[in-house]
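User:
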Amino acid sequence: MMQATLDSTTDAIVVTDVSGNVRDFNEKYAEMMGVTREQLNTVDVRKLRKRFSQRFKDPEQFMSRVMEIYATAPAESFEVLELKDGSVLERYSKIQSIDQRPVGRVWSFRDVTERKRAEETLQAAKIAAEEASQAKDDFLALLSHELRTPLTPALVAASYLGEHRDLLPEFREEVTAIWRNVQLEAHLIDDLLDVTRIARGKIEIHHAAIDVHRLLHDAVEIVQNDILAKEIELTIKLNAANHHIWADSVRIQQVFWNLLNNAVKFTPRGGHITIRSSNKGGRFVFEISDTGIGIEPERQGRIFEAFHQGERSITRQFGGLGLGLTISKTLLDLHGGKISVESKGKNAGTTFRVFLDLLREPLVASTSKTDGEAKNSGSLRLLLVDDHLDTRSVLSRLLTRYGHEVTTADSVKGALQLLDSRDFDTLISDIGLPDDNGYNLVREAKRRQPLKAIALSGFGMEADIQRSFEAGFDYHVTKPVDLNRLRSLLDAIAL
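Assistant: Predicted structure:
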């Protein structure tokens, strides 16, 4: 009966007395040791040293451990053993007792070679996948930096020229077109980075009390030129009595911009877009309807999936990456909000609805000036450090025209030499510089002078921004530089 039980298991098992003399075993154990049943009968397991040396990678250690176990008689023991042929065994032993008196030990050996190999293969695959994912993220970050950097001088120059009073009307339209398309290019880059952040769970939300109606007006202003160019009739009915929420204003405006941009993009010339707001069930409800190309019923269930715009002909005709709705849904999910879509089909228009929780206590509208209304309050001595010639030249000229005294450098070494020779109010520096980086520069600059620091960088991930702050920068501006934001920061520093 005992032998039948031993032979029924897949493990190699041997039973000994307290001294190590073999009392019983199964065929698996004899096979593992490479001996016959006759050779094992009543043999002291410790006398099989030669047999062990033929199989085990470290027979001396094996035998030493066996002798230690018999000498100390632990209730249980467990080891992992390597064989010379590369196999791996798990060895387990347990003491046998009768009336609490030890009478022997049971040893079991389990071949876990395939499992270990599978685990190693899985671990190697996991490491390779993580490395590939990191390489992809690093590539996207680098690509973003390289794409953003040359956009900065074009966007800054176009922004400045578009505001110039003496610019002829026909030139103003061309400059506006340049500015709009550079902004679009920057937005596409942001979409790609946001998808990466979403996939890695790295999107951060910074909550504050915000007026949603104000965000809607700002979003409409951004797309106003496109609405006029396509002669679209825009109706706005903001009827929500309560319109303050606890949210990240930048991210919520991004949602509104995506929905407005899509409505303008997919609505034909002379079409109609209607924007409404209301309160329902303690929530703020935003609704945007258009008379555009509509969405077929079979596509509506997938409209919030990444890169999904339906047929390729739609992508070719209207452009874009098909990421805006995916990003919008994710941002709303992070706010505890909701988005829905409704369309009767092709060429029947589309309605999107956004639901956001209201603040329990509506805020009283502030009468303070916004950043956009801020006036330049004084001249600053600026040290501008950037190795991209066009960015350095354009920003230097424009900041000088705004009344600031600008000194430039194209390297950390050159910047430090200037810091030794004169005083500055503010350091504006790129992060990637040819001889070092902006992080080390700002640390050394603040050690030498009590100044404010603004980071200009094509790297705009949350980790990049956090690293800038940790290094000592007071502000982080992602390229392409928003000239109005940069001016507002300088105005705040000059106060």
